[in-house]
Amino acid sequence: RASADAPCASTPGALADGTHIPLLANLGDATDASSALALGAEGVGLLRTEFLYLDHQAAPSVAEQTARYADAFRPFTGRRVIVRVLDAGADKQLAFLGHEHEQNPALGRRGLRALREHEGVLGDQLRALVAARDLTGVELGVMAPMVADADETEYFVALARSLGVSSVGITAEVPSSAVLADQLAPLVDFISIGTNDLTQYTLAADRMLGSVAAFQDPWHPAVLRLARLVGQAGATAGIPVGVCGEAAGDPLLAVVLVGLGATELSMSPALLADVRAELAGHTLAQARELAALAVAARSAADARAEVSRRIARS
Ligand code: PEP
Ligand code: MG
């Protein structure tokens, strides 16, 4: 392993055999954008747009949204920027998407489900994203949250393309989307695995609930097997597969995810350096070996221990 000469922040993410693994930033706001670049982000893998509008009673206009997105995009001219359309519901309510009391909000009307009922809001957001792309010259990708199946994927892809988005993706965070990844990958330009929700839903453990926090562990082999399905489907379809959940920022798990087929990783900018250093210490063949150990483990703790032990021996 090459951690002694850790690559510097301006070096693109790469494995020891030279395989490029773009390292991207998760952003919730335009103010993080410049610091993400300084920390070596090659682009943005997840801009969470709902945080921009949590205090809005009425839906923001196209012009207002265009200005906000252009601010966030500007430092990344010429680079890839993936924006997730509003992921409201569950713990993040947006007044202008309406909301009724739900007994299990994580299993309720959130993400694309809510946007489909407010197609005007979704359409305005897509128009503003395209306008901000054209103002700033970023390579825009737009993805939908909480997509469950081909019907929802086709709905979103058709709408986004009709409004001028040329790279359209989905997050794989509902387990059904991972199970069906072979059907969904041919419909989209990229997939991004949202390991936070994928873990919550796979282990049936509310990510907001401290008493079941131990289940919220993306090292769980059940979660990793779903990630593998997405990786395989992406490779067959010839599209990039990213990871934008917290798992991408755990250096060892990042290597495992690459071994499962992830081709790019997006994380909180502060974590980029450690992930970059770890990736540089493994070839793709080694990452695949570690991934095979992890998916064969019996628990999250076993997967972590097996992978750590193998690395310590090498
Ligand atoms: C995820 O679910 O992994 C994800 C990246 O989205 P969020 O944490 O915003 O739900
Ligand atoms: Mg999510």
Automatic annotation (TrEMBL):
GO molecular-function terms, A-Z: kinase activity; metal ion binding; phosphoenolpyruvate-protein phosphotransferase activity
Keyword vocabulary terms for this entry: Cytoplasm, Kinase, Magnesium, Metal-binding, Phosphotransferase system, Pyruvate, Sugar transport, Transferase, Transport
EC numbers: 2.7.3.9
Domain PEP-utilising enzyme C-terminal: 11-281
List of catalytic residues: 244
Cofactor: Mg(2+)
Protein's UniProt keywords contain Cytoplasm: yes
Coiled coil: none
Binding site for Mg(2+): 173, 197
An individual GO BP term: phosphoenolpyruvate-dependent sugar phosphotransferase system
Enzyme class: transferase
Sites where the protein binds phosphoenolpyruvate: 48, 84, 196-197, 207
Keyword Transferase in annotation: yes
Protein function: General (non sugar-specific) component of the phosphoenolpyruvate-dependent sugar phosphotransferase system (sugar PTS). This major carbohydrate active-transport system catalyzes the phosphorylation of incoming sugar substrates concomitantly with their translocation across the cell membrane. Enzyme I transfers the phosphoryl group from phosphoenolpyruvate (PEP) to the phosphoryl carrier protein (HPr).
Name recorded for this polypeptide: Phosphoenolpyruvate-protein phosphotransferase
Parent sequence residues shown: 236 to 549 of 549
